[in-house]
Every structure is written in structure tokens, then in C-alpha cells.
Design a protein that fits this description.
By secondary structure, the protein is α/β, with parallel strands linked by helices. It contains 8 helices and 7 strands. It has a 7-stranded parallel beta sheet, with helices on both faces. Belongs to the short-chain dehydrogenases/reductases (SDR) family.
């Protein structure tokens, strides 16, 4: 791959805030072309875009429902019209779900599966062809430690993230001959709005379970995503790497 890093384009799904926004800013620090996808968080996406532009990046925000193949195709066409063809795809979009399996409705099951798994499948399928043609590309899936260990009262969420990990391992083997790597980053507890369901005492108790004694910051997850995207990381593929402060081993 002869293209210099600052000329590469990265698409981050669910990039308006939290881990996604931190990933966008990490790539923006290298003055790469940044595409921030969002569904409804228009203002948050624009604020993240402004922060990326202040770092010197060319940035585009774009909205699409990733559960719809037609909307992803329209998104891809808009990007191509702007000359933005992703060299790096970060599948970060997802939703959490809390509750006992006995209380999960069929509609909830289908909805979370669509957001967390179907969207990753469709987005990857529709954006990987140019990577294959140029014999360089990076697909990085943002999973969760619960996809490896499972979590009580998070069976549905854990199942989707476990599926993401299996998708990562299988697709890595499929795309390796084309020079495209596929990896997953499976964070532990990260200090984002996803932890807002916990009160202060619950957060303190959770922190005490983590050997490092604290939650991860989003930019710490972003640094690993960035590392996996580098040309010199070409021999790392099919891996599920869990930055979790020693919580799960």
C-alpha cells in the first residue's frame, strides 16, 4: 500500500459521541479524511466534526439507518460522489440492552440483533470491495468484553457481541489473501453514557472489581483502534483484543 496515512479515509459508524467520537478524533490527529456516521444525533455529530476539523482533518458527517441496505447504498453513493472511499471501516454503531432473558420480547431481540449484527454485516459487505481491489484495507469491529465472557442480565447484548467476534475471526480468514485485515476491539467498562444506568455506589463497586481500579477512557480504546489500522499492523488479523484493565483475562 503506497498511499500515505494522511491521505487515507476512515468511516466510523456511530461516530457522533462516546467511543466513536474518540476514534474520529484520534484519526483526525493524523489529518486523515474522516467520515462520521450517525443516525439521529445530528448536533453531536457536528460537534465531533468541528473538533476533528480543528485538528486539520477533512470531515464529512452523514446519516443513515444501518439496518437498511438501501440506506447504506445511498450513503456509499454520496461518499463516492465526494471522492471518499474508505480504506478503514470502524463498525462502532450499536445499542446496549439490560434485562433478564425471560423479559426479552421477540421485538427487542430482533431490534438489537439488527443494530448490532445486521448493520455490521451490511456495512462491511458494501464497503469492503474497494479494499479488496486495492489490496489494502482495515475492518475494525467495536465489540465488548461481554462477547467473550457473557454477562448475567445482558444475554441479548452478549450474544450480539459474541456474534461480532465470530464474524471477525471468520471474515479475517476470507479477506487475508486480499491484504485486508479484520479485528475486533472488545472493551471492558468505559466511561461513557452506557454506564449512566449505574448509580454512584454501583460504579464504585464495579471499579473495585477492575485491577487497575478505574474505568477506561474513550481515547484509550481509540488508541488501540488506531494502532490496528496502521499499515505496519498488517500481520494482526482475526484477533479479538480486550482492553479491560485486567478485569477479564
Amino acid at each position: 500500500m503506497s498511499k500515505p496515512l494522511h491521505e487515507m479515509t476512515v468511516l466510523i459508524t456511530g461516530g457522533s459521541r462516546g467511543i466513536g467520537a474518540a476514534i474520529a478524533q484520534r484519526f483526525a490527529a493524523e489529518r486523515m479524511n474522516i467520515i462520521i456516521h450517525y443516525l439521529q444525533s445530528h448536533e453531536a455529530a457536528n460537534e465531533t466534526a468541528r473538533r476533528c476539523m480543528r485538528l486539520g482533518s477533512n470531515v464529512m458527517t452523514i446519516s443513515a439507518d444501518l439496518r437498511s441496505k438501501d440506506q447504506i447504498i445511498r450513503m456509499r453513493d454520496k461518499l463516492e460522489d465526494r471522492g471518499l472511499i474508505p480504506d478503514i471501516l470502524v463498525n462502532n454503531a450499536g445499542v446496549a440492552h439490560y434485562g433478564m432473558l425471560s423479559d426479552v420480547t421477540e421485538q427487542e431481540w430482533d431490534d438489537v440483533m439488527s443494530v448490532n449484527l445486521k448493520s455490521m454485516f451490511l456495512t462491511t459487505q458494501l464497503f469492503m470491495a474497494p479494499m479488496i481491489r486495492q489490496r489494502f484495507g482495515r475492518v475494525i469491529n467495536v465489540s465488548s468484553v461481554w462477547g467473550q465472557s457473557g454477562a448475567s442480565c445482558e444475554v441479548l447484548y452478549s450474544t450480539t457481541k459474541g456474534g461480532m467476534n465470530a464474524f471477525t475471526k471468520a471474515l479475517a480468514k476470507e479477506l487475508a489473501p486480499s491484504g485486508v485485515t479484520v479485528n475486533a476491539v472488545a472493551p471492558g467498562a468505559v466511561d461513557t453514557v452506557m454506564l449512566d444506568k449505574l448509580d454512584s455506589s454501583e460504579k464504585q463497586a464495579l471499579e473495585q472489581e477492575i485491577p487497575l481500579g478505574r474505568f477506561a477512557q474513550p481515547d484509550e480504546i481509540a488508541s488501540l483502534v488506531y494502532f490496528l489500522s496502521l499499515p505496519e499492523s498488517a500481520y494482526i488479523t482475526g484477533q479479538v483484543i480486550s482492553p479491560n484493565g485486567g478485569w477479564m483475562t
